[in-house]
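Hello,

Following up on my earlier ticket. Below are the two sequence lines again, exactly as submitted.
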Amino acid sequence: MLLLTLAVIAGVRFSLLLGLGLLIGFTLERYGFGFAGPWRRLIRDRDAQGMIAQLVAIGLTALAIQPLIAYAPGSLIGAIAPVSLTMIIAAAVFGLSMQMILGCGSGTLVNAGSGNIIGLVALPLFCIGSFLGSLLVPFAIQSTPHIPVSLTSLLGVEQSVAVTLAGLLIVGLIARGFSQGPIWNRRFLTAAVILAALATLHVLIAGQPWGVVYGLGLWAAKAAQGVGWDPSTAQFWIHPINASALKASILTDTTSLTSIGLVIGAALAAWVDSVHRPFKQPVAVWYYLVAALFGLLLGVSSRLAFGCNVGGLFSGIASGSMHGWVWLIAGFIGSIAGVHLRDKIWSLANREIK
Amino acid sequence: MTNRAGIITAVTTVVLIVLLDWSLGTPPDPYRAPDPMALGSTSGASGAICSLAPGAEK
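Thanks for your patience. The regenerated structure is below:
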């Protein structure tokens, strides 16, 4: 009914995108598939099952979308972004922040949708942070060299796919070497295959890979405009694509629709069991301020890193963008620090309430 | 209070964002809607994507 209404009032493409978002949100919540959690389990418990499933999802998506984008250049585009010093630092900060709230780009939306109070606190700040980050992007681009590297342009599509799959295999072997248990998990692998299929459909329908951060920043930019902010003063927002998105309805913005879908999809998946879960978490109130702070950092850093774990890592690598690989390394280093910091602060917040 | 309160809060917030945007901004025009699929269409990707880096395109 919701999708039919949107098809009538906005168009079939937008309805399909909302539907895709719903399915992605439902899949992530129902199968417990994520990014921050698996990285945490790999770092802390030497459990590589979730990480391996992520690599499978990215690999399958790359296999499908790189040829599609290469052979339909007029209508499909990849998530190709520049590599720079600020981008690397921002990805590391994102990796740290996502461990602090145990929610990445997609994870924060899914956590909020499933009623998690930390996700609910972090999400509005994530939106504001993404908007603030968009104001910083032009300064970052002017201050440090930003070099976009597309493997498909550089090597051709066949070699680019081969290099991408080989890179994922190497990461998988490193994770397997570090792991102290089984690396295959049927539930995660099922989710990975579903996610890859949905991510490929996203490219076919939207013409561009799945992303999260752009839409969140757009919502905050629209809110800022509502309270008197003038977008013509911001270099990022006078770019024709951004100016057009700011004028249009969020019901016609790709990342907004999939992000809305993610929240509702996760809500549907979590609804039945939610009655048995307590709303309040066993932590001191001040931890919610910590969550808000790191939610803000998630937004700022993901904008400066040209995507979060979805738009930067997942879609970046799958599109053949070098920035996706750099994101993976920097984000993981940040996550190592984040896992240790989170354990310390969480135990402090947890001890205080006992 | 159960987690269901959180779910209701999240979905209500999202609905409010859409309604606010609808009432204060430009509502969508179905007559200017792009083709259902970008693949093979003249109305391809919008380009409004996380990897967009104005000023660093080249």
